[in-house]
Amino acid sequence: MNSYIIFHSNSNPFLKILSLSSLYIQIFFFFLIHVHLCSSSSSPKSLIFPLKTQILRSPNKLQVRHNVSLIVSLTVGIPPQNVSMVLDTGSELSWLHCNRTTRNNQPDPTIFYPNQSTSYKPIPCFSPTCTNKTQDFPIPPSCDSDNLCHATLSYADSSSSDGNLASDSFHLGSSSNISGLVFGCMDSIFSSNSDEDSKTTGLMGMNRGSLSFVSQMGFPKFSYCISGSDFSGLLLLGDSNVTWLAPLNYTPLIQISRRLPYFDRTAYTVQLEGIKVSGKLLPVPKSVLVPDHTGAGQTMVDSGTQFTFLLGPVYNALRTEYLNQTTGVLRVLEDPNFVFQGALDLCYRVPSGQTRLPNLPSVSLVFAGAEMVVSGDRVLYKVPGEMKGNDSVWCMSFGNSDLLGVEAYVIGHHHQQNMWMEFDLEKSRIGLAQVRCDLARKRFGVGQ
Ligand SMILES: *[C@@H]1O[C@H](CO)[C@@H](O)[C@H](O)[C@H]1NC(C)=O
Ligand SMILES: *[C@@H]1O[C@H](CO)[C@@H](O)[C@H](O)[C@H]1NC(C)=O
Ligand SMILES: *[C@@H]1O[C@H](CO)[C@@H](O)[C@H](O)[C@H]1NC(C)=O
Ligand SMILES: *[C@@H]1O[C@H](CO)[C@@H](O)[C@H](O)[C@H]1NC(C)=O
Ligand SMILES: *[C@@H]1O[C@H](CO)[C@@H](O)[C@H](O)[C@H]1NC(C)=O
Ligand SMILES: *[C@@H]1O[C@H](CO)[C@@H](O)[C@H](O)[C@H]1NC(C)=O
Ligand SMILES: *[C@@H]1O[C@H](CO)[C@@H](O)[C@H](O)[C@H]1NC(C)=O
Ligand SMILES: *[C@@H]1O[C@H](CO)[C@@H](O)[C@H](O)[C@H]1NC(C)=O
Ligand SMILES: *[C@@H]1O[C@H](CO)[C@@H](O)[C@H](O)[C@H]1NC(C)=O
């Protein structure tokens, strides 16, 4: 009884950089869109989007959110302008990079021109949207000289971006138009990294905050999968009945309604119960996996972060066991000064001519009711461009949160490959199942 609009990207790479059969693969973005309409009824409609990948950073406390991102393409405004947005389950406010001049002849798809949209409306600062719905913003909005709601996004490298809270129509596919969707129309993007920032128009905030894209759309759930083999992916917004895919295992979302200094209550928080290396459970006390009285120690599922980060005691236990189980199989990079992305410090040397890694231990994240198994070849990540003599450098794709000053466990999208990830807001739970994302696409009638 649901209506599915299915967009499909044929050669739509999902991850910019990914280790596969020990080959380093750099991906590019082409996509074809096919539209399939099935039966209709019930609102909001379910929609399927292609996801592509790109390098970008998103505004957040985590510096490691840079680089690889999941991208959704859609149109905004009347007449519609093409935009591409980073899918981020760790952010609330969706935003677009705006330019308030009149667009010249050649439209720039990385910029939204509000003056060219008749449906664009800035939000006044006395509006309840500005005063009431922004309570979970990391930086509260202010009032600008025109009495408009002024939003600021900050980045870990202390750069920031400023703009107005505004609303406009968002067009998801040809049959779904949402008017008055609130987003940040950001004028200035002060950053040390503007090359990378300029590759997409903005970000689609998908967390549980009241102004996030999912909250505003009122979708009861959304899901995505990321292929581990052919770089394609799917984003499904809305209700889905994917029982044919695989039975999902559900883990409840944890909620703490009190405000705690280190607890992000808008995040998708789950309960981590343990970590296994090749089936061997790490000896860590359960207490370090549970948020403490300050909120430190929450476990967030975050599509905006690439790798997975663990608090020091758990990271060290994983590091020790992984090192133990790879002794004699892999050669450790003996360079204490090399720490990839500031937090991944267990790295190895692999002869650059070697196209296949040896069989390596898997790492499983055990949640209440569900388990996420990261296969051996996905546990190691080849560091782009890094060489030691004739060897390339590979690092364990789990990092130490402590080295980043982050008080949380963060499950990144590198470890969500070939997983169906369902965010069920209605029932407050996350469903997981191991799937072949390329086959899932075919089952939706696309992907030939
Ligand atoms: C992230 O981007 C930086 C700058 O472009 C690059 O040096 C680094 O290798 C990238 N890291 C990954 C994991 O792609
Ligand atoms: C938006 O993108 C589509 C597909 O890439 C293209 O056909 C169309 O001309 C673009 N529209 C605008 C206004 O740039
Ligand atoms: C806005 O666009 C105009 C014309 O395309 C350009 O000259 C100007 O530099 C842009 N402004 C910003 C802040 O990017
Ligand atoms: C764009 O719109 C703003 C108000 O939203 C206005 O102040 C500005 O003058 C307009 N710019 C142009 C070039 O039309
Ligand atoms: C603002 O929020 C408070 C509680 O969060 C609520 O009591 C009040 O009615 C809201 N005001 C408006 C104008 O929505
Ligand atoms: C949605 O909006 C676009 C752009 O204004 C328009 O072309 C399309 O016909 C609209 N579709 C529906 C179903 O209203
Ligand atoms: C989902 O599919 C199963 C089997 O295909 C069916 O039994 C069930 O009623 C469906 N649920 C919904 C909500 O459509
Ligand atoms: C690995 O751990 C086992 C059991 O704790 C121990 O007996 C063995 O010596 C360790 N091996 C290495 C290479 O550290
Ligand atoms: C790297 O490989 C080349 C060719 O195989 C060889 O001549 C050179 O000595 C090697 N360098 C190191 C540092 O091993």
From TrEMBL:
It comes from the Eukaryota. Residues 70-433 form the Peptidase A1 domain. Pfam families: TAXi_C (PF14541), TAXi_N (PF14543). SUPFAM superfamilies: Acid proteases. The chain crosses the membrane at residues 17-37. CDD domains: pepsin_A_like_plant. PANTHER family: ASPARTIC PROTEINASE PCS1 (PTHR47965:SF77), ASPARTYL PROTEASE-RELATED (PTHR47965). This is Aspartic proteinase PCS1. It comes from Hibiscus syriacus (Rose of Sharon).
